[in-house]
Specification:
The protein has about 280 residues and is an all-alpha fold. It is built from twelve helices and no strands.
Length: about 280
């Protein structure tokens, strides 16, 4: 039963439909042995298999949709003096953390296969609101003034608004909701000292709490226009020290437990990014 929640909703509906119909067919056949209705069962199974096969056109459209989202997110990241590596790494950290939550049986009613897919698709949009921040603030090489920091903080609210206006018409309501929550709430803190709404503990949506860990870890482990990257030991220490204040303690515990996997992603995607930059330079 545990694995049932990890099956995509479309397939769950199909499975339940087949079981109901086949149960009805079998029951009718038992009551009326002379009937040949069981042959319908075979037809239903064949039809079900066909319907669950991926539609090439739909899959291609979905692929281009995902690429559009990633491209839009990368465009925003470039505005922040990044090459897009940040969104790839944070998305992977989100996937690792959420998958481990699933394995350990936490949030069973929430962490379905659909949720994980939508969360990973929404993660790249967490900083979309930065498109509204002036370059002078976003790319400032030194520490922000109090006034500049207040301007920077507005990207969370702007991000939520952009998600609602841009993706609010999509049929996938869960994706839109997750993208909105991540964009607006990923700077909230477990102790309520974050922004923009001062939410605390589990008032903060789960996806945003997961995003917060991934975002901060990548922010401190990579070079920024105002500082160099920190050593990984220090980065993990920052996450650990933020347990119960900045971050959900459970998420911190799991993130530290999967340190080896996080480091592997960090190094492999950094190498990939360097190769891409080198290739562009040669071209």
């Amino acid at each position: 039963m545990k694995k049932w929640h990890y099956i995509e909703n479309r397939k769950r509906v199909s499975i339940l439909t087949y079981l109901v119909v086949l149960t009805g067919v079998t029951g009718y056949q038992m009551l009326h042995p002379q009937a040949l209705i069981t042959s319908i069962g075979i037809t239903i199974i064949v039809l079900g298999v066909y319907m669950n096969q991926g539609n090439v056109a739909v899959e291609e459209l979905s692929y281009y949709h995902d690429e559009m989202i990633m491209g839009f997110a990368t465009l925003v990241e470039n505005k922040d003096d990044n090459t897009g590596g940040h969104i790839k790494r944070t998305t992977k950290y989100v996937e690792l953390l959420t998958t481990e939550l699933q394995k350990r049986g936490y949030y069973r009613q929430v962490l379905t296969k659909d949720y994980l897919n939508n969360l990973c698709m929404a993660a790249p949009m967490h900083d979309v609101g930065k498109i509204s921040i002036p370059d002078a603030v976003l790319q400032k090489p030194g520490k922000l003034t109090d006034e500049e920091f207040e301007i920077m903080k507005t990207h969370a609210v702007s991000g939520g608004q952009i998600i609602q206006k841009t993706f609010g018409h999509l049929e996938n309501e869960q994706y839109t909701q997750l993208a909105y929550q991540i964009a607006r709430y990923h700077h909230e803190k477990w102790n309520g000292s974050g922004y923009p709404d001062g939410l605390k503990a589990e008032e903060i949506p789960l996806g945003a709490r997961i995003m917060a860990v991934a975002d901060v870890f990548d922010a401190v482990s990579e070079r920024r226009c105002y500082r160099e990257a920190m050593p990984l030991n220090k980065c993990f220490q920052i996450i650990e020290e933020g347990s119960g204040s900045h971050f959900d303690p459970l998420l911190v515990e799991i993130f530290l437990d999967i340190r080896d996997e996080v480091e592997e992603v960090h190094y492999s995607l950094n190498e990939e990014e360097k190769s891409e930059i080198s290739g562009e330079s040669i071209a």
